[in-house]
Amino acid sequence: MEIKRNKLLKKIEEEYEVHQVCALLGPRQSGKTTLAKTYMKNIDDQVHFFDCENFLHLSQLENPLLTLEPLKGLVVIDEVQLKPDLFGTLRVLVDNNPDQRFLITGSASRDLIHQSSETLAGRIGYHQITPFSLEEVDSNWQRLWEVGGFPKSFLAKSSKISERWRDEYIKTFLERDILGLGLEVSPQVAGKLWRMLAHMHGQILNMHNLSKSLGIDQRTVKRYLNILEGAFMITLLRPWYTNVGKREIKSPKVYIRDSGILHRLLNFSSENFQFNPSIGSSFEGFVVEEISRYFDCYENAYFWATHNGAELDLIINKGMKKIGFEVKYTDKPCVTKSMRIASEALELEHLYVIIPGTHNFRLDEKITCLGIANCSDLISK
User: AAA+ ATPase domain location, by residue (predicted)?
Assistant: First the structure.
């Protein structure tokens, strides 16, 4: 089975209309290298490929200016965060050769952006490469939700193989990847933190409880959370503030970004998946991630809640409009008092109630029930 990522390929092509350097950022094994190689095959130009995990390629890049300057066409540098001193060389090359283009991939977003933003300012564009989205898997939402979007998990021949792959991914992340991300803790403590976050999935982040349970001060916990967010492992969904005089929640909500990874952290299996008591919060996180991808609005996505109990799972800004989303794992959705309060207080253009399945129907003049499989319809609205 082949998953076509034409939308992402188009973004790469369009990026070169603006910048000479295009950066693909995303978690390890999310498909960045495959996407880069697909783009390489599709273009009618000279292509040169360097993998910073390949010792032979690394030796060629020890003198990057001598190696890269004579090359024409497209130069692809994979896992560039392993060779951060390249950014200064790329600036020199871009400024002196307008016909040369670079496609770079990296797995540590914030570090990579920090390293490149100053030296390549005005010369580079960034694109987040997530695991497979619902739009890319032909709305096969049930499998995507259960096993997540990492290619080797989604495309596995059986649920057992998928579960085994995700278990190994978690193990490798805890034993190897955290060292390169700056988490100065043992794999055991990092694993405890990640599993605690999984149990807090969809809830207001409680820094005090995390700090107390881990025996780490809150400043350190906050730094670790920022690192995990920068590595695309979690989402810290920020609260939306209004001026309506209500006592609003001002702490973020936390989500494990990939639902398949979440399910293994919570010990979900294919046999108990539908009966797990955490299935509602899991579905909420899955929808929040998919909607944020559809609108490409990670920086403009929020939730809203008051201490009086009114809340809304997701708010996105689309131009001058605010659109609200409430997620319900039910086949009998209805309009609630909380929805009406949120719609009025936030002055929403429209509110969508997202449920499992494919059903679409109006609940009210400004409230529509939308099956998760049809969320792509929102893009054209």
Answer: 18-118
